[in-house]
Amino acid sequence: MPTINYILKDGSTRAVDAPAGLSVMEAAIRANIRGIDAECGGCCSCATCHVYVDEAFLDRLPPADDMEQELLEGVAAERRPTSRLSCQLPMSAELDGIIITVPATQA
Asked: Is position 107 within any domain?
């Protein structure tokens, strides 16, 4: 089962196993990862699941569609080139070990 490594706001890291097909957001909610609010439940309509993806994994992810790009324009924390909405990141074997940094704020 692929593992997601979440870097939390306090700098600590939590490793979470996530079945293929589960989103990075869904895995965070199930594991009670603080800082990924996911207010819309994964419908790609609120941007409260904003995260930073480690650069080494960016090319393994599907590209952000127009809706995700638009929502990323209004995120509360700094938008970076590695910014993504975790609800739009389905886990797969290729993403095993992915490093996800939780931003300082979602609101």
From this structure: no
Q: pLDDT per residue over 6-41, tens digit each? A: 999 999 999 999 999 999 999 999 999 999 999 888
Taking the whole predicted model, whether its pTM rises above 0.90 is answered as yes
CATH code, 21 = 3.10.20.30
What is the domain count for the chain? 1
**Domain extent at residue 38:** 3-101
Interior CA angle at 21 toward 17 and 13, to 5°?
30
